Amino acid sequence: MRIVRRAALAGLAAAALALAACSGGEDPAEPEETTAQEESAAPEEEAPADADLATADSDLGEIVVDGAGMTAYMFTNDTQGGDASACTGDCLTAWPPVIASSEEPVVDGVTGEVGTIETPDGELQLTLNGWPLYLFAQDTAAGDVNGQGANDVWYVLSPDGEPIMEMAG
């Protein structure tokens, strides 16, 4: 019995240490700082929790965002109305697709035509007026528009689904 108890206690202690090691950064203030930045950069009107796409005010005017408030982008190398994305391989690391929560996406304030295309791994990528939608990996907080104009092919969209080509001022 004693050996079993000691083994169980040792196992619990090892599990606790493993969880502590996986818990993240060494500076506990770091997550709070990120949260505060996200809150300050969040859109004025946050999307309902169940919305796949919504709108938010930005330096570029009113733009389309995903349900978490992250800016959605279109890629001019895509074929508008096509059934596949031109962003593949390493491109998808920097520009992950905006994934629909269901076959019938929920939108809030978006007036353009919302649809989906299937990704190579079988997920449903949202489209707006036929443009597949993406996030930018270097946008770290809701409201960031760091991908605007990247390589002259990545642009945010207005709620009616039109690309906004101007740069943030």
From TrEMBL:
Residues 24-51 are annotated as: Disordered. One of its GO terms (biological process) is alkane catabolic process. It comes from the Bacteria. Residues 27-49 have a biased composition (Acidic residues). InterPro entries: Lipoprotein_repeat, TAT_signal. Residues 1-20 form the signal peptide. Keywords: Signal. The keyword Ion transport does not apply. The keyword Signal applies. PANTHER family: BLL4220 PROTEIN. This is Lipoprotein. It comes from Beutenbergia cavernae (strain ATCC BAA-8 / DSM 12333 / CCUG 43141 / JCM 11478 / NBRC 16432 / NCIMB 13614 / HKI 0122). The lineage of its organism: Bacteria, Bacillati, Actinomycetota, Actinomycetes, Micrococcales.
